[in-house]
Specification:
Elements: H1 4-7, H2 10-14, H3 20-30, H4 34-52, H5 74-93, E1 118-120, E2 123-125, E3 131-134, E4 142-148, E5 154-158, E6 162-164, H6 167-170, E7 178-186, E8 192-195, E9 199-203
Parallel strand pairs: 2-9
Antiparallel strand pairs: 1-3, 3-6, 4-5, 4-7, 7-8, 7-9
């Protein structure tokens, strides 16, 4: 895996053990990196297999990817083996692409993945945007929006697939500067359904 820093965060993310800041950083990378997405998908299968195998002995921990497996109970070994086969099948039938698949529920953090497509703004625009827009996500009840590059960053929530940019926020954007925005879609129970890539736009001079 080309991103060991994020590989070390996968189990913590799936099990809900990361701080909000760490989870946010992992998600920003995960939704834009197909390699890390597929690695997370494999680990999610292992977490599911461990749950299905029941409580593990106190001395046994969740299996990790190493050059050799640690000694585990037969039930855990069988479950982990089945999970690896399932992961291999998933990778065989679903080609690597930036578009994430749905993950199984890991029990603590409900993880689902999808790509949210932004409509605009993008690239170079003549003036500060009056609104942000994106394609609606099925099942989403609220969207979380952020614009980065202004101080402080602007965040807001909406139930629609567009949101106006307040005049005072637009006034803080300067010609010749590049800003970034992204959107996340959530279901009613708070489950993350989809997230967009971190997308730049530049105010023309």
């Amino acid at each position: 895996m080309p991103h060991p820093e994020y590989e070390n965060m996968i189990d913590g993310y799936l099990l809900g053990r990361l701080s909000e800041e760490e989870a946010e950083r992992f998600e920003r990378h995960y939704f834009e990196c197909p390699e890390c997405f597929h690695e997370t998908a494999e680990r999610a299968l292992l977490v599911e297999a461990a749950k299905a195998a029941g409580p593990a002995p106190a001395a046994v921990k969740l299996p990790v990817r190493t050059s050799a497996f640690r000694r585990v109970s037969p039930g855990w070994a069988a479950a982990a083996g089945a999970a690896v086969l399932l992961a291999a099948a998933a990778l065989l039938f679903f080609p690597r692409s930036p578009k994430p698949l749905d993950f199984p529920d890991a029990g603590i953090r409900s993880v689902r993945g999808g790509t949210l497509e932004l409509v605009g703004p993008a690239e170079t625009i003549p003036e500060a945007p009056g609104e942000l827009s994106w394609k609606a996500v099925e099942g989403a009840t609220v969207y979380s929006v952020v614009i980065e590059g202004i101080n402080p960053s602007w965040t807001a929530e909406t139930r629609d697939s567009t949101i106006p940019v307040p005049t005072e926020v637009a006034a803080r954007m300067s010609p010749g500067r590049t800003y970034f925005w992204r959107v996340k879609a959530y279901a009613a129970e708070g489950t993350l359904l989809a997230a967009s890539a971190r997308t730049p736009f530049t105010i023309g001079r």
